[in-house]
Structures are given as structure tokens and as C-alpha cells.
Specification:
Bound molecules: 2-acetamido-2-deoxy-beta-D-glucopyranose
Strand order of the largest sheet: 10-14-15-13-12-11
Largest sheet: 6 strands, mixed
Shape: rod-shaped
Structural class: alpha/beta
Radius of gyration: 50 Å
CATH class of the largest domain: Mainly Alpha
CATH topology of the largest domain: Transferase(Phosphotransferase), domain 1
Strand content: 5-15%
CATH architecture of the largest domain: Orthogonal Bundle
Helix content: 40-55%
Oligomer: single chain
Number of strands: 19
Distance between the termini: 128 Å
Number of domains: 4
């Protein structure tokens, strides 16, 4: 039995063997079970031998060094299963097509049967593995079937290189579809073989058949990437030099502002933000990126490089000052034609206006004096090189009536005498009638020399009566008056030290605190 074979049909051999040895129902079992359970018949070598005599081109006939009968037998099992899977009309007579399109569950299984592909039946002309989402590298085994005319591997997830050179034995291939895979990007060579196929064979496969496109892509990559890098570097440099406030803190100095930052903070130096103006100074109100309101003083003086360095050194010192009675210095900036200093934004109210409008009580005045003296002491102890202005018009008031010294600069170290004299004037202005100072209209020297001519008794008549003093507070005011006079006295070299001033003022301050406290308690 099973020995009459048509020499042109290789598949008949295994089919005949199988169908004759086992009932047809065994083929319904899965291919894996069949591979495990079926065993080759005793005379299988004879059958193969006879077949090869009749058709030496059969692939297993040329296998060297020795024919592996087990593999060939397994091959026949898989072949019969595949033939049936492909709904080939007559598997015994012909096996023209492997059709595993839309069979994701079994496609990879069949691809894994190397022993089948090694002896790929010569009758197969078309292989379709499309739309199975098969993963892995290109199924090289399929290319053992060199006689095929059509190969469709589209709509899978094959990756890695397409083995271009392995295609050349497939001389009869007229249809190829590798579209929709994940092959690594490469150019399909412009060879005689691949000229037969156009881009629709390689859609979204990774491979590029359009040489122009490939070249353009390569150029874009080669030229575009460096350009992109350069642009990014330029952008980062721009950020660093123009808008460091967009960078994290660690990448820029907190105190160094750029013209671009100031421009953004003031809406392009808009008129609405300009709050004061003279020939050389423009004062703007601005809002920084973090929401801080700032005062920007821009000086339109073209200073030399040396002066600029000095300016920066001074700004660095000022940026380290930190006292509750000192307007916060936030930083500096150098533009092409200007330099600017940036400080915290404060209310407009100054001590002069406050005295005039609100006629504050002695209590409140002492609190302001206390703040000023504390700040003087802080600067004297820690920053003796910082000079400041103590005019009632330049000392501002915060919301809770804390004085804020708003004009300060790096100056002469050894002018403590001048500072104390200034404090004296400030103190006298805090105590005396406004009209007296007004007569001198900002002429401090005149005011000073006039004061020095007055006697104590005369001065007592000039005490601001709006303070509504009682016996105790009048005593304190008189003490303060004497202190003020001592501070402005330049007839000898003696002047009260800051520590003495601090003692007197803080005593009055504390006495008022206690009194105020008691009053509240008794109420
Ligand atoms: C071949 O497949 C069909 C379904 O397509 C099935 O009914 C038939 O039993 C199979 N034949 C063999 C021999 O397995
Ligand atoms: C086939 O194998 C058997 C034993 O396995 C051996 O006796 C016989 O000679 C072989 N026939 C051919 C044609 O090789
Ligand atoms: C691919 O298979 C899916 C189901 O697995 C089906 O919905 C879809 O229509 C198929 N696509 C093609 C092009 O055959
Ligand atoms: C291509 O087809 C021709 C004619 O059918 C055949 O002679 C030749 O062997 C085939 N080539 C391959 C590689 O199978
Ligand atoms: C590609 O070639 C096929 C015939 O092989 C043709 O039908 C199709 O229009 C071509 N596509 C392009 C984009 O040239
Ligand atoms: C290859 O398959 C894709 C997806 O099914 C299809 O769009 C494309 O037209 C096919 N290419 C050819 C040459 O048939």
C-alpha cells in the first residue's frame, strides 16, 4: 500500500502515508499533538528513496550529509496540517499556497517549525502571513521557499533588520508586502531585484524605498539635528543672558537682573508703570515673575567699566543687608545705556507726611525712633561702610508703622559723627513743630546752625503740642530733646555714642510699652 506516487507531486507521499496509517480524524488533533504522537512507518526510508529517484529536485533529497528521516517525517505532518489550514482544495494533489492571513493564534507556531521550512514543498507559490501581529525578527526560514512568487508579511510586528541579501534567491517573486511592521529604518537597495516593488510594499515598515526621501531624511537628520542642538544652545544661552528668571534658582544669581527681565516686569517700560522721572533717573513700579512688586530705579548715566565694577561691588554689599527697618535691596541690572537698582516696593507714606497729617502721639513717634535706632545699630555693627539718609522725607513707613530707611549706599566708613548728627536732626524734627524746619526749606545747614543758637528753654516752647503730653511723657520728650541737641552739637569733639542713644530711646520705648500695656489691663 501507499506506493503509487505521482512523481510531480511530492506532498502525496506524506499525505498518503498519513491518511493510510491513521484515520482522517487524527488530523483534527492539533499539530503539536500529531508531532508528538505520530511515528514514521518502518518503510519510510524506502518511500523517500523512491521519491528522490523520481524527482531529485525535492528539497529533502539534497540534504546533506545524511537524510534526517525524523525531520522529514515531522515535515510531512506540518505540511498536511498547513495545507488543510489554508483551505487548499486538494491537499493530496496540490499545495500551492500557505494562507495564514488573520490567524494570529497559529501563525507563530507554524513559523517556528524550522524542519518544515528547511524542506519547503516545491509546489508552494504563495505565502501569506499577514495581519497576525507576530513579534520577533524577520522570519528568515520562510526564504527557504525560494520558488515562491508572492510573500505577504504585512500587518505584523516584525522588527530588526530586513535581510535584504537573503531575498536574492527568490528570483520568481513578483509580489512582496512587508508593510506595517517595525523593522529598523534602512534603505531598500536600488537593485534589479527590489526594483520590481514600489513603496506600497514597504508602507510603514521602517524600510524606505524612496531613495530621494531616504536621502532627504538622512540630510534632515545630519543637518537638522545639529541645527536643533545649536538652536537649543542658543535658546538656553538666551535664557541665561536675557531671562534667567525662567531658569531654576541654582543657575543664576538671585540679585542679577537683566534688561529683559525689567522690561517684562514693567510691561515694556510702559507709561503706566513709570512712577517718577528726572533727567537721569526713571523710577518704575514692576512685578516680577514670582509676583513680587518691585521698585526699579533706572539711571541713564553711561558709566565707565571701572565705575560699573564698583557699582556691582556696592550692590553686592547692599544685597546682603537684612533688617526689618531697611527697604529690601533686591538686585541690580546693567543695560547698554543704563544701570538700575531694584528694591522692594513700599508705600509712598514717609515720616514727614505722617507727622504732618496724622499728628501721631509720642507713643507712636517713639516706636518709629526705636526702629530707626535699631537699624542704625545694625548697620553700624555689621555694615559700617553703608551710609544712609535719615531725612523725615526719605524714611518711609510700613503698614504697621515701622520706619523703613529707604536711601542707603556704600559710602565712607568713618562718618559716624555725621550719622549721629543726622539722627539728631531727625529726632528734633520728630519732636518739634513742623513750621520751624519748614522755614529752612530743606536747608539742613541753616536749620542746624539756627538750632545751635537756641537755648533749652526756648526749644521747649517749640515742642509739637499735638502730641498731647502728660507729665511722664513730657519728661521723656525733654530728655529726647536734649539728646537731639547733643547729637547736633559740634562745638566739641564729644558726641553721644550709638549705644547711649539706643539706651535712651529704648528706655522711653519700653516705658511707653509698659504704660500702654497697663492701660489695656485696667480697662
Ligand atoms: C481540514 O479542515 C477542515 C476545515 O477547514 C476540516 O473540516 C477537515 O476535517 C480538515 N481535514 C483534515 C484532514 O484535517
Ligand atoms: C531502510 O531501513 C531499514 C532498517 O532501518 C533497512 O533495513 C533498509 O535497508 C533501508 N532501506 C533503504 C532503501 O535505505
Ligand atoms: C486584521 O485582523 C483583524 C482581526 O484580528 C480584523 O478585524 C481586520 O479586519 C484584519 N485586517 C485586514 C486588513 O485583514
Ligand atoms: C522560477 O520559475 C521557473 C519557471 O516556472 C522555474 O524554472 C524556476 O526554477 C523558478 N525559480 C526558482 C528559484 O524556483
Ligand atoms: C505599486 O505597484 C503596483 C503594481 O505592482 C501598482 O498597482 C501601484 O499603483 C503602485 N503604487 C505606487 C505608489 O506606485
Ligand atoms: C500591503 O499591505 C498593506 C496593508 O494591508 C496595503 O495597504 C498595501 O497596499 C499592500 N501593498 C501591496 C503592494 O499590495
Amino acid at each position: 500500500m501507499a506506493t503509487t506516487i505521482s512523481p510531480t507531486c511530492f506532498i502525496c507521499i506524506p499525505m498518503i502515508i498519513l491518511s493510510s496509517l491513521y484515520p482522517i480524524t487524527t488530523l483534527c488533533a492539533t499539530v503539536l499533538e500529531d508531532l508528538k504522537n505520530l511515528h514514521k512507518p518502518q518503510d519510510f526510508n524506502t518511500t523517500i528513496f523512491n521519491n528522490c529517484l523520481k524527482n531529485p529536485s525535492l528539497r529533502y533529497c539534497n540534504s546533506s550529509p545524511m537524510i534526517d528521516l525524523d525531520d522529514i517525517f515531522k515535515h510531512t505532518i506540518v505540511a498536511s496540517h498547513l495545507c488543510n489550514e489554508s483551505n487548499n482544495p486538494n491537499c493530496v494533489e496540490s499545495f500551492p499556497k500557505i494562507d495564514l492571513r488573520n490567524r494570529p493564534n497559529i501563525a507563530s507556531l507554524y513559523l517556528s517549525f524550522t524542519f518544515f521550512w528547511k524542506y519547503c514543498p516545491l509546489s508552494i507559490l504563495s505565502i501569506d502571513f499577514s495581519n497576525n501581529s507576530v513579534k520577533g525578527s524577520f522570519p528568515n526560514d520562510v526564504l527557504y521557499c525560494t520558488q515562491i512568487q508572492s510573500l505577504d508579511l504585512s500587518l505584523n510586528e516584525f522588527s530588526g533588520e530586513i535581510p535584504i541579501e537573503n531575498f536574492s534567491p527568490l528570483t520568481n517573486l513578483t509580489f512582496l508586502n512587508l508593510s506595517y511592521n517595525c523593522f529598523s529604518e534602512s534603505e531598500v537597495p536600488d537593485s534589479q531585484f527590489f526594483k520590481k516593488f514600489n513603496s506600497s510594499s514597504f508602507l510603514h515598515s521602517g524600510a524606505l524605498i524612496d531613495h530621494k526621501k531616504f536621502t532627504i531624511k538622512a540630510i534632515i537628520l545630519l543637518v537638522g539635528f545639529p541645527i536643533l542642538v545649536i538652536l537649543m544652545v542658543i535658546f538656553l544661552a538666551w535664557l541665561c543672558f536675557q531671562r534667567p528668571d525662567f531658569l531654576p534658582r541654582i543657575f543664576h544669581s538671585r540679585f542679577k537682573f537683566t534688561p529683559a527681565i525689567l522690561k517684562a516686569a514693567t510691561y515694556g517700560f510702559s507709561k503706566e508703570n513709570l512712577v517718577g522721572k528726572s533727567d537721569i533717573v526713571h523710577i518704575y513700579k514692576g512685578v516680577l515673575r514670582d509676583g513680587t512688586e518691585v521698585k526699579i530705579e533706572m539711571y541713564w548715566d553711561d558709566i565707565s567699566r571701572d565705575s560699573y565694577h564698583k557699582f556691582v561691588e556696592e550692590c553686592k554689599i547692599l544685597s546682603e543687608l537684612d533688617h526689618k527697618n531697611l527697604v529690601k535691596f533686591l538686585g541690580w541690572c546693567k543695560g547698554r545705556k543704563f544701570r538700575a537698582i531694584i528694591t522692594e516696593w513700599t508705600k509712598d507714606e514717609n515720616v514727614e507726611m505722617w507727622l504732618l497729617r496724622e499728628a501721631p502721639s509720642w507713643n507712636h513717634r517713639v516706636k518709629v525712633l526705636m526702629g530707626v535706632v535699631e537699624c542704625m545699630l545694625y548697620l553700624h555693627d555689621e555694615w559700617p561702610e553703608v551710609d544712609y539718609d535719615l531725612k523725615t522725607s526719605s524714611v518711609l513707613l510700613s503698614d504697621n508703622h515701622e520706619p523703613l530707611i529707604s536711601r542707603f549706599q556704600v559710602g565712607d566708613r568713618n562718618n559716624i559723627r555725621k550719622k549721629i548728627c543726622k539722627f539728631g536732626v531727625f529726632l528734633l524734627e520728630m519732636i518739634l513743630n513742623k513750621s520751624i524746619k519748614e522755614e529752612f526749606d530743606g536747608n539742613d545747614a541753616g536749620f542746624l546752625s539756627y538750632m545751635r543758637t537756641l537755648h533749652h528753654a526756648e526749644l521747649q516752647h517749640m515742642i509739637d503740642e499735638r502730641m498731647d503730653l502728660n507729665e511722664t511723657t513730657l519728661h521723656q520728650v525733654k530728655q529726647a530733646l536734649s539728646l537731639g541737641l547733643m547729637c547736633i552739637d559740634q562745638s566739641n569733639n564729644e558726641h553721644p555714642s550709638l549705644a547711649q542713644i539706643f539706651n535712651i530711646v529704648s528706655k522711653a520705648y519700653k516705658a511707653n510699652l509698659v504704660k500702654g500695656h497697663k492701660r489695656v489691663q485696667f480697662r
